[in-house]
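Reopening closed ticket. The problem is back. First fold of the pair:
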Amino acid sequence: MKGLKKLLDSGKKIMAVWLLINSTVWIYLSYILAFLDKPDIAEDLSAKVVTTVVATFATYAVSSVVEHISEAKYGNIEDKRDDSGGYI
């Protein structure tokens, strides 16, 4: 169970980094479009990318904070089990 949590947490981080890299590329592409005299497309692309990035990172940050607060308040559930699998 602990390994699964670690894998999922690292998966969330990987997805967040992947989104950040792709978003950076999209922003640079919007500058290229603006340079090529297509400002309307560039403006729409930039606005959508920024909205997506802010929403995704806000969701990731909130879930991470709630998870850490919960662990700090209640501790790790795996630590509170005895050898027979029941709770102490």
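Second fold of the pair, where the issue appears:
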Amino acid sequence: MARGDLVLFEEFANMLGSENFAFENGGDTFKVALFNASRSFTAADASPAYSSTNEVSGTGYDAGGATLASQSYNEASGVATFDAANVTWSQNASGFTGATSALVYDDTNASDMAIGWVDLGSAVSQQDGDVTISWNASGIFTVTVS
């Protein structure tokens, strides 16, 4: 997997049919949280959810991660797209170090259910410079009806 690829959890397909997600702007609050190498994710995780275990910490990083701003969920020609603004943690000499993955989850959901994660490839540090997650130009994820 290349650095920055978003991987959706297999369980997310089931959650789409059994949970009330409100992806549109003004709906649920989705966040992205950063974790060190001691926490790993796989597409087959049975109950993907946010937990603070092995989450990075430091000045300029809030526990639970950053809220995805400017959320949108739109459909055109049978393809629904969830998107949001890119996320940046500005450089901070006392910021986090060792972030290797980023979890996208629904903070409004009582279980903090996760939808996917981003492999950061190698450890990144807020102390070395800005850390930015730039979503794909086609959106964070799409659902295609065929």
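Update: turned out to be a display glitch only; the data is intact. The chain is about 5% helix and 35% strand. The beta strands are 6-8, 30-35, 66-67, 72-76, 79-83, 87-89, 99-106, 114-124, 131-133, 141-144. Please close again.
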